[in-house]
Structures are given as structure tokens and as C-alpha cells.
Give the backbone structure.
Amino acid sequence: MLAVVALVAVAAHAEDSVFAGTVPDDPAEKKESHLSAELGGTYVTGNTAFYALNALAKADHLWMMNKVSGNLGATLGGSKSDADGDGILSAAERDMPLDENARRVFGEARYDRYLTDNDSLYALAGAFHDPWLGYDFRSHEQVGYSHLFVNTEPTQFRTEIGADAAQEDYIEGADPAYSDVISARLLVGLKHAFNENVGFEETFEVYESVIDVEDTRIINTASFTSNLNTTLSLKLSNILLFDNVPAVDGFAKLDTTSMVTFVATIL
């Protein structure tokens, strides 16, 4: 009888043990999400007239060893022209509608699979429309490897290497009207927080065509950000686009855009 009681007690204890299949809860899965929106613009009327608008939205989500991120933005601009070249807008010229002279709409989505805290493999796809740069529509796909050489609280320094395939549709009248571009890509990026309110970020990208070695493209983006409060910040940025072989004959090799925008951090 005592043996039976002992066996029942042991069985009851085993039901609450790890060996019986009941294990402590797993630690909570690490998840992070971020969402921000930028907006800046100018509108002038009177003796001169022009407008400019810059907008950008960014989002990312991190879970375990995976991260998805993306952005969507636009740059628009226009003015009233001094058609007769006399240095002023006449009454008739001021009555004319605003003529568009800038239109860039773009978007990009990216997936990172982290191998370690500092290493990841990535794939991305993006596209833009910019007729003032010669492109009716340009899409591209990319794969590569990213490594963080420095990953501390105030500073991140990373490099990326990869391959990029682009499909380019040019504006009406361009010859040729379409082209495929295969390039090797190298990126160097630095992000540094001087203090809790002021930060600096810069990325330098080089695309080298594997078909035409003279076709070298450079994208450099630099920005300073100053927090105004916990949600709103002020951002000063500059984007440099250089194409040694412009997609369409007659277009300049260099374009720059300087912006001051308000950034709202939603998440």
C-alpha cells in the first residue's frame, strides 16, 4: 500500500516537472517597429512665383533575425517663367500658370536576414519616375551583403556590397527608349549621435556598370537632424546624384537637392 502511495506521489510531481513536458515560458520575441514622415515646402506668389514640395515616409519592422523596411517619397517643383528674358515677370507672365520643372516620385522595399548582430544578407526592389532626369520609369532589384564595423549606442559604421539590375524606360523622344543596366554596388554609411538631440548621417553609394565601365553612378546623401521634442525634429539634408554617362543625351551629369524638412516620428 505504501508503495502505491509513493508511486502516485512521484507521478503527481512528475506532471509538474520539465521532464513531463511542462517547460517555462519562452522569453518574449524581440520586435521593433518604426514609422516616420517628413515634409517641407515653399510657395511664393507676387512679383515672382514658384513652389517646391518634398515629402518622405519611412517604415521598418524588426523581429528576431529578420527586418523589413521601405520608403516612399516625392519631390515636386514649378515656377512662372520669364519668357521674354527681360529679368522680370510682366503682368501677362504673372497671369500664366505655374510651369512644372521638378517631379520625382520614388519608393523602395528591402528585406534583411541577419546572420549575426552585425552581418546580414539583403534583397531589395525599388523604382522611381523622374522625367526631368530623363526617366519615364526606372525599376531595379538588388541583392548583397551588409556588415556593421562599428555598432555602438552613438555610432554606426557599415559597408554593403552587392549586385544591382535596373530596367530603364526613358522619356519620349529618347534614343534608345529602353536599356538594361547591370552594376556592382558598394556603399559606405556612417550614423552618429552627438548627443540625445543632434545627429548626423551620411551614405555614399557607387554603382559600376559591368557592361560599360565608363557608366559610373554615385549617390551621396548627408543629413543633420535636431530634435525639437519627443515627436518632432528638424532635418537639413543634401542629396547628390552623379551619372558619368547620362541616360539621355543632353542631360547634365550632376544633380543636387538640398532640403529643410520637419520629421514626425510616429512610432
Notes: The CA atoms of residues 103 and 115 lie 39 Å apart. The chain has a mean pLDDT of 90. The domain at 33-265 is CATH 2.40.160.40 (Porin).
